[in-house]
Each structure stands twice: as structure tokens, then as C-alpha cells.
Amino acid sequence: MGVRERRERQKEELRQEILDAAREMFFEEGYENVSMRKLAERIEYSPTTIYLHFKDKAELFNQLCDESFAKLALRLEKLQKRLSRDPLAFLREGLRAYIDFGLKHPHHYAVTFILAPTRGDDYQFQGSAGERAFSYMRGAVALCVAKGELQTADIDATAQAIWASIHGVTSLLITHKDFPFVPKNKLIEETIEMIVRGLQTR
Amino acid sequence: MGVRERRERQKEELRQEILDAAREMFFEEGYENVSMRKLAERIEYSPTTIYLHFKDKAELFNQLCDESFAKLALRLEKLQKRLSRDPLAFLREGLRAYIDFGLKHPHHYAVTFILAPTRGDDYQFQGSAGERAFSYMRGAVALCVAKGELQTADIDATAQAIWASIHGVTSLLITHKDFPFVPKNKLIEETIEMIVRGLQTR
DNA sequence: TATTATTCTTAACGCCGTTAAGTGAGAAAG
DNA sequence: CTTTCTCACTTAACGGCGTTAAGAATAATA
Questions:
Q1: Which of residues 138-167 of A touch B (CB under 8 A)?
Q2: Nucleotides of D under 7 A from a protein CB
Q3: How many Å apart are CA B57 and CA B80, to the nearest integer?
Q4: Of B172, B180, B194, the CB nearest to A167
Q5: DSSP state of B1
């Protein structure tokens, strides 16, 4: 009577097939340029089939975003363990990792942090893997303050200011490809150092 | 023989009527939610008529963006004159003005700095009013460095890092309306202070 | 073999930006 | 005064989109 099980397995397989194709296509062409019809053609099913596995295009994509951000969260977790003795280094490395991640997954980053909210989608930052990643950074700031390496009157305000700044670099580098930027790494380092120096105890 | 003149005047009037309606609608509903058809209905012409005045939707919107950014540039110019004696104050006030502008014209800001480049549009940052506004900031940084109030090895890198950071605050505040931010002004001040402290000579 | 689930497709709805072709009013030319 | 021409404007369509209602096909159960 393993029928049910096999069916579920097959369903899961197709679901994965959709996710895999979508991941590739979104990565190559971006959210806006991948239509449900094109995606369907790629997996050789009718467009309607996708809707048997995902509520709509947004949900499908959010799934992929969460996947990616979970990876970032994992990376930050490892960093934290490795650098738990030196919170300032953890903060610095964490910021680098965050920006790095954005540049490696530009479409995912764009949809979660740049595009998602501007559409009328029901995407919720709260509870997302994106939020989880952010909370690591807040933790890093708190640690630095506790150890007296950074000074601030308000940990949340500081953490958010930091986040805003690195989000700025990340998103500019992703979206403004034609801007005559200083070399990428220089801009990243400059920003990180500016942030750290701006908060360091004197 | 004022026929030609009258015709041109009328054409210009309709062009303005389109721009006015578009400005309102884009402001109220955002770029994606305003269709050429809706806009046409508002001005009581057929959709095709709009194309007699603007190449496409993107050009129409860029027109409006440039308008707004010209206003920002003007504001920065005035600031510069008023605070030419105190470049650090000019920088600070300029940053505030930039963020302020973004929050006052969220749709225009979003399209120029957040969305435009992610679409395949032929929008060029170079030569835009947006670039003009940015260059004021670069000037402010250069001035501060010249007067020995800020320290940096590379003015461009610094100016871009600053820009990235305030773009970050601005765009996060615009797009992530559901994020439990610290009060808006607090976040803005925190970021500006972090930036300035991070670059100040010690 | 007949019935029932389940999977998947066809066809459509109502949008979208954009364009080719045509209408109709008014100016210019005869 | 009539014809020609110009030019603002519209109608109708193309090919796309995300999504859904209704039905066909397939495979498991009775």
C-alpha cells in the first residue's frame, strides 16, 4: 500500500524540479523576466501545473529566497562561533559576508530587500530568513557594546544604521551597474571601515 | 499665420496635462500600478495619444524623475551657498536633505535609484539630475577634506561610501514599511552621525 | 469492469505596453 | 468654394502577462 507514499514522493520530485528550474532562470534573468509560462515550458508542463505546487509566483520565489538566506544565516552562525572571542572582528567579517552574499545572489537579494516590498505582495519580512540574518548582526553589535569596543546609546538604532549602510552598498552595486564606481572591494572596505570607526569607542 | 504657434502651444499644453496627471498618479500609486490605459482614461484621451508625446512609459516617468531631482539639486545648491563657510555642516545638512527628498518623493526616488536599473530600461544614470545631486555631495566631501575636517585617502571612495549609506537608509525606509524600525528621525540621525564620526579627523 | 481520486491540460479572463492602420477636422492650395 | 493635404487622435489588434474554472486523462480502488 505504498501508493500514497510513492505519489507524495513524485509530487515532491516535481516540486523540486520546479524549484530547480526556477532558481536557475531567476538567477539568469531576474524575477521580472521569468514568466510562469516560460518556466512551465522549461520543465515541460503546462503553466497551470505550477499552481498545484505553489500558490503564486511570489510564493515560489520567496521559497528560493528563504533557501538562500538560510545559507547566509548559516555562514554567519559559523563566523560567530569562530570569532566569538573577538566581537569586533565578527562584526567586520559579518558585514563583509552579508555584502558578499548579496553580490553572489543578486536576484534573490533584490527580490527580498529591494523589490519585494515595492510590489503589493504579501511578503513579510518578519519571520523570514532575511530577518534571521539581520538578527545576527544586531547580536554582533550588542556583543561589541558589551565588551566596550563600540559605543552607542541605542543598540537597535545602531544596528539598523549599520544594516542600512551595508544594504546601501550592496544594493547600489547590484542595481547601478553602469555607475563609475571605485573598484568594488575598495568601496566595500571603505564603507565597513567608515562604519566601524564611526562607532568605535575613543 | 500664428497657426503653427497655436498648434504647438496646444501640443505643449496636452503634454503638460499628461505630465501633471502622471505625476499625481505615480505619486499615489507607484510606477507599477499606473498603466498607460489608466493614465489615458484620467486625461480623457486614448492610450495611443500618450505615445505622441512620450516614447514610452519609462521616458514619461524619467521626465518626472528629472524634474524632482532638479529640485533636490537646487536645494543642495542653496545649502552650499548658505553653509560655504562650514563644509562639515554642509555635508551633514546635505545628507539630511537627500534622505528627506527621498522620503518626500518615494516613487520618484524608487524608480531612479531602486527600480530603474533592475529593469532592462535604457535609463542612464550618467548625465541625469540624480547624478547632479550626487556630485554635490562629492564636492562637499572634497571641501571637508581640503579644510582638514575629514580624513580619507580617496575622495571618490569616501563619497561613494557615504552615498551608499544614505541611499541605504532612504531606500530601506521607503521599501520596508513593515519593518519595526526605530523612529525614523532617530535612524537618520544615527546614520549621519556614524558616517561623520567615521570620517572625522582625530 | 465500473467507480473514484488525482494529475495535468485546455481555454479563457482581464490585465498590460505598444503599434499599424485608419478617421476626421481643419488649414492650405487650387 | 472645392479639393487636397496635414496632423491630432482613435480603433483594433498583437503578443505578452498572472491566474483560474472546467474538463480530460490517467491510475488506483472497489
A1: 154, 156-158, 160-167
A2: 7-12, 16-22, 28-29
A3: 35
A4: B172
A5: -
Q: Over chain A, what is the mean pLDDT?
A: 90
Q: Does A36 touch chain B (CB under 8 A)?
A: no
Of B154, B175, B202, the CB nearest to A114: B175
Tens of pLDDT, residues B71-90: 999 999 999 999 999 999 99
- B47 contact partners, CB below 8 Å, separation of at least 6: B36, B37, B39, B40
Nearest to A32 by CA among A110, A84, A93: A110
**Which residues in chain B are contacts of A119 at CB distance < 8 A?**
32
CA angle B191, B197, B200 (to 5 degrees): 140
Report helix, strand or coil for A51: coil
pTM, 2 dp? 0.89
Would you list the DSSP string of A166-182? HHHHHHHHHH-TTS-PS
